[in-house]
Write a structure and sequence with these properties.
Elements lengths: L3 E4 L10 H5 L5 E3 L4 E3 L9 H5 L6 E4 L1
The protein binds iron/sulfur cluster (2 copies).
Length: 62
């Protein structure tokens, strides 16, 4: 089983909420200056990676 996670750099994110809306697993939490991905529920579907207008979410090795 591949070990990866989704990394969202808060310094590059503009908190638009697009990835939160598209995540089928409700794994992304957006706060005023932070965005979290819950590794336990994220299925690595990469929908957030594809939809982010700024190309911020990335799949990285654990
Ligand atoms: S990879 Fe898929 S499940 Fe994981 S945070 Fe992105 S949209 Fe949600
Ligand atoms: S879609 Fe991109 S810019 Fe918008 S909140 Fe998600 S990571 Fe940030």
């Amino acid at each position: 089983m591949s070990r990866s996670r989704i990394f969202i750099d808060p310094g590059r994110c503009d908190y638009c909420g697009t990835c939160v809306a598209v995540c089928p697993a409700d794994s992304i939490t957006l706060e005023e200056s932070t965005v979290f991905v819950d590794d336990k529920t994220c299925t690595r579907c990469l929908a957030c990676v594809r939809i982010c207008p700024l190309g911020v979410p990335r799949e990285v090795s654990q």
